[in-house]
TrEMBL record:
Provenance organism: Handroanthus impetiginosus
Range of residues in the leader sequence: 1-27
Tagged with keyword Transmembrane helix: yes
Keyword Membrane included in the entry's annotation: yes
Keywords noted in UniProt: Membrane, Signal, Transmembrane, Transmembrane helix
Primary site of residence: membrane
Membrane topology of the entry: Single-pass membrane protein
Lineage top rank: taxon: Eukaryota
Protein name listed in UniProt: Autophagy-related protein 27
Residues spanning the membrane: 206-227
Single GO cellular component term: Golgi membrane
Length: 284
């Protein structure tokens, strides 16, 4: 195949098609990482951290490319539901090879922490986008917010970062506190409108068992009519309305149902007045 003056081989087209599919099903896909649905009694709570809002077109993702919080000489950078991007002020620390390397430090992971060790800032990768897991803050009050947890499996230690996204419909408040839960396990929080769930009242919704049964019956009936019509048309060479299988039965079915219903009514109500008056009394 030629496109203008460029010749495109079939192998190249197949490769391009496969790469497109892999890109769409990538485990780092933002929608897959940022959605959570929780059902509680008659309500369903739905979170979508990547959904754009009028004031936040990128959803909960920081427009700077990262969130940053520092306390007691420890500096934490992280991004929710994706990898970090540093257009300015990149991390300057040692041992950043598993998160972008020295030239792109911080751009190969979703959470990175820097600690002062022997006077040098040493970096530790805390999480990657593909390891992101979402859960509600409080099982009893699912609308309070969610926890975004990301992890990283290192050669010596398994590290993690938990970010509490608290519901705040009034605006955004970035991370201000940082808590060390272990050797390389940290916790912080921020407030965001996307921490508020969309509540769907599911009470009484759904088809129920009777509705599902009726759908199955209708599907079987439709399949029977379709298969029978195809068979009669192509193999028996029947044309017109007679192509419908058992046409006489289906045509008489409404009358048969009506007669059965009337018979059932007479059985429970007894003979009607007109039925009784059709006989004349006999005197002996």
């Amino acid at each position: 195949m030629k496109f203008g003056s460029i010749s495109l081989r079939p192998q190249f087209l197949v490769l391009l098609f496969v790469l497109t599919i892999l890109r769409r099903v990538s485990p780092d896909s933002v929608p897959a990482l940022c959605e959570l649905s929780v059902k509680d009694k008659s309500k369903a709570y739905y979170y979508s951290l990547a959904s754009p809002l009028r004031k936040f077109p990128h959803g909960i993702l920081s427009e700077d490319g990262y969130y940053k919080v520092a306390t007691n000489g420890t500096v934490l950078w992280f991004q929710l539901c994706g990898s970090m991007i540093f257009n300015h002020d990149p991390p300057m620390c040692v041992d950043c090879k598993d998160c972008g390397g020295s030239t792109h430090c911080g751009m190969g992971c979703s959470a990175l922490v820097s600690n002062q060790i022997d006077g040098y800032p040493v970096c530790t990768t805390l999480g990657r986008p593909s390891s992101t897991v979402l859960d509600v803050l409080d099982k009893k009050s699912p609308n309070m917010g969610i926890i975004v947890k990301m992890t990283n499996t290192g050669p010596k230690h398994n590290c993690s970062l938990s970010v509490s996204v608290i519901c705040n419909s009034n605006g955004v408040q970035g991370p201000q506190t940082l808590e060390n839960l272990g050797f390389c396990d940290y916790k912080t929080e921020l407030k965001h409108p996307l921490g508020c769930a969309k509540i769907i009242n599911s009470h009484g919704s759904g088809l129920g068992w009777f509705g599902i049964l009726m759908v199955i019956i209708l599907c079987l009936y439709g399949g029977y009519i379709l298969a029978g019509s195809v068979y009669r048309y192509f193999f028996l060479h029947v044309r017109g309305i007679d192509v419908i299988p058992n046409l006489e039965f289906w045509a008489s079915l409404p009358h048969s149902i009506q007669s059965w219903f009337q018979s059932l009514v007479r059985r429970f109500r007894g003979p009607s007045h007109s039925y009784r008056s059709s006989y004349s009394p006999v005197n002996f």
